[in-house]
Write a structure and sequence with these properties.
The protein is an alpha+beta fold and about 270 residues long. About 40% of the residues lie in helices and about 20% in strands. The protein is built from seven helices and nine strands; from the N terminus they run αβαββββββββααααα. Helix 1 runs antiparallel to helix 3 and helix 3 runs antiparallel to helix 4. The relative contact order is 0.15. The C terminus is likely disordered.
Amino acid sequence: MTRVLCLCLACWLFASSALARDVEVMRLTSATPDTTLASVRAAGAAAWVEADAIRKQEKPSWWRLQLTPEADTSKEWIVALKETYDAELVAYLPPDYRARPISVFDPAWQQIGSRHRLSLRLAAVDAGAPIYLQLFDGRQQPMHVNASPLADYIAVDMDRVRFTSMILSALLLLGVVAGVYSVALRQWHLLLFGAWVMSAAIYVLVMSGEIVALLGDSACFVMPCACLPCRSTSAWWPSISSSSVSCRSASITRVWRARCTRSSASLR
């Protein structure tokens, strides 16, 4: 019975996310590595093609997210990106359209709700304005985009947190029980089962993004690949000194710094 309830809850959460799609996803077809934000904003309608999700391209790509005309733009909205994981994304949000590297696993990134989704907040006065995203790299799986009013998003996000918390509680309890029985019965092979259960709990924590809330800034040391390599670039992260710990290799950092410089130059 419990399994049936869990399955129904998971299906309901998936369906509610799918029905909440009130955003148009468009990809710029003429994007090049040297494309600037100014040229992206000036591109005509013929330069954009509609897409059902954000997908990795052969070269860096530009995306435009905008609420549909039917959406009520008199209230605050949340545009949520699903399954971004370690994608290298840069967001340009209204009204200033300042470059912001975004990542679910970056402790410096502040957002509404949990880390189950990468959420971008639109004020009511800017709800009708587009959001621009630049995707440098990522996994091959699609990153679906949904939009919903702020109050609705918080309610659905709370349901996701409850479901994840239930799964984590069950896994941790099962692991503790396996450890107690292995010691009491001297059946040491049960420790292997307990270790497997704990590994599953860690997997759920990481994939849901909640490990960032649990570890805070320590997440950069536990998961170095989760932190954006240009965090130490003063042009993008003025609150972090140049002596910050580099989260990736020096060669990748140099590449990202070059990208950061080009993107920052487009704003001048």
